[in-house]
């Protein structure tokens, strides 16, 4: 586990806090370690903590009544999980699973709300986070209407690659998980991946997908070039 002295580095919600306040946050937070495949929480669990990721990656997903999973996003440091439930006190609206060995800090709802009352500007960062979530979900809904499956696969890969200028990008996600995010069957997603590989846009290495041509995937997804 990284030293807690830098545990809030890069976390937008806590940017600008005085050092004394940051130390109070850290003193109230509890270190957590999750092995790959471990559930951090499931739908309808009490929303009693904010989880700050420090290392690893977490998949956020919903499960249907028949057991099918729809992956909503993959969260990586320095992002946080659980801010929606913290604000309204409701149960978790989705489940979260570590897809890599993950280290995190858990801040209880009581400690978080006390921090908000004493530092109201934190709400600005929380509202920005919620706004980004709403925009992402709106865009995902539009993608299912306007993009074919290969386009959705390409767009998912671009999102997972993040904001990078690297020539080659490695995405730590297997094809089953990619199918959940793109909203297609594994067989159909495998066909799309095979088509992209045939164009030398990417290659697969076990559980990893190595992207060779990110601009080509952006074009296939109908996204503007950078």
Automatic annotation (TrEMBL):
GO MF? DNA binding; DNA-binding transcription factor activity
Q: Which SMART domains match?
A: cNMP (SM00100), HTH_CRP (SM00419)
- Keyword flag Cytoplasm: no
Pfam families associated with the record: cNMP_binding, HTH_Crp_2
**Entry GO terms, CC:** cytosol
What are the HTH crp-type domain coordinates in residue numbering?
A: 147-215
Its name, as the record gives it, is Putative Crp/Fnr-family transriptional regulator
What organism does this protein naturally occur in?
Answer: Pilimelia terevasa
**Top-level taxonomy:** Bacteria, Bacillati, Actinomycetota, Actinomycetes, Micromonosporales
């Amino acid at each position: 586990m990284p030293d807690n002295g830098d545990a809030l580095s890069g976390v937008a919600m806590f940017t600008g806090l005085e050092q004394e306040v940051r130390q109070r946050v850290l003193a109230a937070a509890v270190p957590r370690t999750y092995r790959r495949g471990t559930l951090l929480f499931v739908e309808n669990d009490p929303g009693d903590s904010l989880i700050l990721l420090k290392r690893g990656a977490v998949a956020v997903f919903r499960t249907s009544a028949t057991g099918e999973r729809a992956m909503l996003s993959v969260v990586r440091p320095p992002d946080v999980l659980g801010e929606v439930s913290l604000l309204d006190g409701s149960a978790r609206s989705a489940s979260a699973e570590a897809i890599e060995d993950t280290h995190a800090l858990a801040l209880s709802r009581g400690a978080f709300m006390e921090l908000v009352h004493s530092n109201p500007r934190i709400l600005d960062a929380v509202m920005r986070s919620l706004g980004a979530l709403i925009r992402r979900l709106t865009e995902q809904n539009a993608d299912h209407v306007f993009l074919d499956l290969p386009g959705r696969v390409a767009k998912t890969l671009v999102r997972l690659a993040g904001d990078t200028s690297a020539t080659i990008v490695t995405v730590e996600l297997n094809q089953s998980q990619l199918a959940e995010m793109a909203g297609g069957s594994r067989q159909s997603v495998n066909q799309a991946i095979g088509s992209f590989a045939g164009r030398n846009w990417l290659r697969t290495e076990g559980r990893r997908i190595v992207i060779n041509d990110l601009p080509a995937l952006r074009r296939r997804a109908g996204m503007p070039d950078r």
